[in-house]
Design goal:
It is a single chain. Helix 2 packs parallel to helix 3, helix 2 packs across helix 7 and helix 5 runs parallel beside helix 6. The protein has nine helices and seven strands, in the order H-E-H-E-H-E-H-E-H-E-H-E-H-E-H-H. Helix 5 links the parallel strand 4 and strand 5. The protein is α/β, with parallel strands linked by helices and 268 residues long. The protein starts with a helix and ends in a 6-residue tail after the last helix. The chain has a seven-stranded parallel beta sheet with strand order 3-2-1-4-5-6-7, with helices on both faces. It is globular and about 50 Å long.
Length: 268
């Protein structure tokens, strides 16, 4: 068993595990010796992932199909992990389509707000209780560099990710006093399915793209060391420039100009 599993194990929960950063978190944690509950909406993908990780690492992996944008999603996840000694939770599930705010209907925006804000809050509350009682544990909230400023054509997404950033920073201090580590992972552009959207060309953005496995590994290395991690040197430079060197208005304008180029086909 790795040092990480000895500190936080024996069980870890990863939401949004069917693809992207969540899938790489699950794979890395399996290699570290954690037993896993992998949760997402696409059960077929979870079953394939569970078999892969279990066969490779000799750990138990339980796929759990759940829609965390629904009011009962976290309750179902909590029930599915009842009786397991969960010491690490990766709150990764999240979504919101890029493009004009008015191109997405209000009900869909409401569901995205539920998934990106209410769900991580409930996960932090539910599993936080369990970890405080056991005297140790770790929670990773996956935010985004979009959280640092208003982002036209990603307006709802950026707003919800800002909530996760603020929530995690507060819980880092609050839970840290009780032996529970909290990290907010703030990735920049990452090669995942979320960037494969009809009518949107993210390749026009002058950004350095990271692989999801590198993002997950960086987060696990930072857990317990700091409250917020922005992986990637260029992403950290961009964060400093947009939050310290530019006015907020200029930063919003800059991101709006870049996103407008990427989403020309998605505008109203």
């Amino acid at each position: 068993m790795s040092t990480l599993a000895s500190k936080y194990g024996p069980w870890a929960v990863v939401t949004g595990a069917s693809s992207g950063i969540g899938r790489e978190f699950a794979r890395t944690l399996g290699e570290e010796g954690f037993n896993l509950v992998v949760a997402a909406r696409r059960l077929d993908r979870l079953e394939t992932l569970a078999e892969e990780i279990g066969d490779k690492n000799g750990v138990e992996v339980r796929p759990f199909e759940v829609d965390l944008s629904t009011a009962s999603g976290v309750d179902r996840l909590e029930a599915a992990t009842d009786g397991l000694d969960v010491g690490l939770v990766i709150s990764n599930a999240g979504s919101s389509p890029p493009g004009s705010f008015l191109n997405t209907n209000a009900d869909a925006h409401r569901a995205f707000v539920e998934l990106n804000t209410t769900t991580p809050m409930l996960i932090g509350h539910s599993f936080g209780h369990r970890m405080v009682e056991r005297g140790r544990g770790g929670i990773v909230f996956v935010s985004s560099t979009a959280a640092f400023t208003g982002t036209p054509y990603l307006a709802n997404y950026a707003a919800t990710k800002a909530y996760q950033l603020t929530l995690g920073e507060g819980l880092h201090a609050e839970y840290g006093e009780k032996g529970v580590d909290v990290l907010v992972l703030v990735p920049g552009p990452t090669r995942t399915e979320m960037t494969d959207v009809d009518g949107v060309d993210f390749s026009v953005l002058p950004m350095s793209w990271m692989d999801p496995e590198d993002v997950a590994a960086a987060a696990l290395g930072a857990l317990g060391r700091k409250p917020v991690l922005v992986p990637g040197r260029i992403n950290r430079v961009m964060r400093f420039a947009t939050t310290h060197l530019m006015s907020r208005r200029a930063s919003v304008s800059m991101w709006g100009s870049m996103m407008r180029k990427a989403t020309d086909d998605a505008l109203v």
